[in-house]
Design brief:
The protein has 90 residues and is mainly alpha-helical. The chain has a domain of 60 residues: 434 Repressor (Amino-terminal Domain) (Orthogonal Bundle). The chain has a two-stranded antiparallel sheet with strand order 1-2. The radius of gyration is 12 Å and the shape is globular. It starts with 6 loop residues before the first helix and ends with a strand.
C-alpha cells in the first residue's frame, strides 16, 4: 500500500464516515455508481471538473480530496447531484 492515501481511499473513507452507500454518494455527487466504485478501487480517477463537482455537491473543500489525514478528523458532512468525465488510471 502507498505511503499516501489514494483518491479512492479518501472517497471510501468519506463515504463510510457519512454512512452512505455507493448509491447514496452517487445521488449526492451526481457521479455514477460504477464510476465511484472504480475510483474507490483505484482503477479510475476523475477530471478536475468532476473533482470540483464532487467537492461542491458534498460541500467539502477540494483540498480535502487530497488530504493526507483522514477526512473523519475534518468533521465533513452534507449532500448534492449531475454526470461524469473520467480518466483511466495508468
Amino acid at each position: 500500500m502507498s505511503a499516501h492515501p489514494t483518491l479512492g481511499r479518501i472517497l471510501r473513507d468519506l463515504r463510510n464516515h457519512r454512512g452512505w452507500t455507493l448509491k447514496e454518494m452517487s445521488e449526492r455527487s451526481g457521479i455514477p455508481v460504477s464510476t465511484l466504485s472504480k475510483v474507490e478501487h483505484d482503477r479510475l480517477t476523475l477530471t478536475y471538473d468532476k473533482l470540483l463537482q464532487l467537492s461542491q455537491r458534498l460541500q467539502i473543500r477540494m483540498s480535502e480530496l487530497f488530504a493526507e489525514t483522514e477526512l473523519a478528523d475534518e468533521g465533513v458532512t452534507r449532500g448534492g447531484a449531475s454526470a461524469g468525465s473520467m480518466i483511466p488510471c495508468a
